[in-house]
Amino acid sequence: MEDVYIIGIGMNKFGKYPFETVRTMAEEVIQQALKDAGINKGDLEAGFFSNTFWGMFNAQHSIRGQVVFRGIGMDRIPVTNVENACAGASTALHLAYTGIRAGMYDVAIAVGSEKLTNPDKAKSLSAYSSCMDVENFEKQVGLLLDYGRNFEGSQPPEESAPGTGRSVFMDVYAMMTRWHMNKYGTTQRQLAAIASKNHFHSSLNPHAQYQNRMSIEEVLNDNPVTFPLTRSMCAPVGDGAAAVIVCSESFLKKLRKTRPVKILASVHGQGSDRDLDGEDIGERLAKAAYEKAGLGPQDIDLAELHDATAYGELHQSEAMGFCPHGEGGSFAESGATTLGGSIPINTSGGLESRGHPIGASGLAQIYEVVTQLRGEAGDRQVIGARIGLAENGGGSIGVEEAAMCIHILEKV
Fold first, then answer.
1. Which residues form the Thiolase C-terminal domain (predicted)?
2. Who has the most CB within 10 Å: 83, 122, 337, 379?
């Protein structure tokens, strides 16, 4: 089977773009990725397009990728539309990787583009609930509330019902955070340390939606969302796009000027029916990814983890094996995950600060890891970075993500 390499990346600055569309943002990053790879659009043999809400907001269903690719004159390649909640973009990359690995294609592109901002803010926030089991939505919310009532010493103050004035996923994360606080003694200040660190990292990233630094105290004193999360601990609503071009080793040998990064592992899975103390999807997939790559967590030089809230990063740093269970908060507070630390996490600023346009986020993570491994990250460069990991989760069923992809990349 062919080894697979990333040869081109593209990404716009995540933010709020009232005059851009899913299509125009996708076109921009496709052109960037082609230029970065040093190839022409005619070289591409397949396209994989990730988007979640274009149909909901603008009635463009079913053939989203074909609309984008044909619009820029790419009408002879097979196009696969990918919808996997927040893990859609990384799933698109996994499918492109699979096609190359199987020998079906020599070069393919994965694209993610999402426009979440809407004049009707309530519509934007309510859209997130479609990333859950909608037929059993009330049952799911009830499950979360029942879990939350059992956590002693970390009870939230009286607040509005889940999903009221916020994404329902903030309530999911808040419940999980309170569970962690109750079981391990994790503190709100440790969550604030993670968010403060990510705001520092994003201040060095020209592609980040937020580029302002925030102290731990400023994070703690920010507007409350749902206990114990404050606004700056949570990913913002925003728009953006990213693209990644992958190729086989045989195609790579034809290129004269490129900066390839090798994909050592690409794993994809769905969440299982478990209780809060069972083995997490991230743990299961991380073990599979490390086995495929022939590496362990101690070999990872930097990681982009799915931090729709600060707790997401805390939890995934444990699930990926970077620190023991229950120590994610103190691990971050120690400075280990900050630039210059033993394992810098979310040097892009993460979803909290770089931004989280759902259908593009997974490829934005890959953009950051590739940029780091190429040594082109500027002031946020991880010195000597050779191996990077990206973990991207999506949706929620039961007490864990519905879908997840993990990629491990190596500098060439």
1. 285-398
2. 337
What residue ranges in 231-340 does DSSP mark as E strands?
239-248, 261-270, 302-304
Q: How far apart are CA 289 and CA 266, in angstroms?
A: 7
| Domain 126-235+265-411 class in CATH | alpha beta
Residue 255: half-sphere exposure toward Cβ, Cα within 13 Å: 25
Is residue 61 part of the annotated active site? The answer reads no
- 236-246 residues labelled b (16+ CB within 10 A) or e (exposed): bbbbbbbbbbb
Which residue of the set 86, 234, 247, 405 is catalytic?
Answer: 86
The tens digit of pLDDT for each residue in 92-145 reads 999 999 999 999 999 999 999 999 998 887 777 778 888 888 888 777 777 766
Out of 94, 180, 356, 407, pick the active-site residue: 356
**Domain ranges, ordered by start, for the chain:** 4-119+238-263, 126-235+265-411
Distances (CA, A) of 240 to 29, 41, 126, 260, 353: 10, 21, 19, 24, 13
Cut 0.90: pTM above it: yes
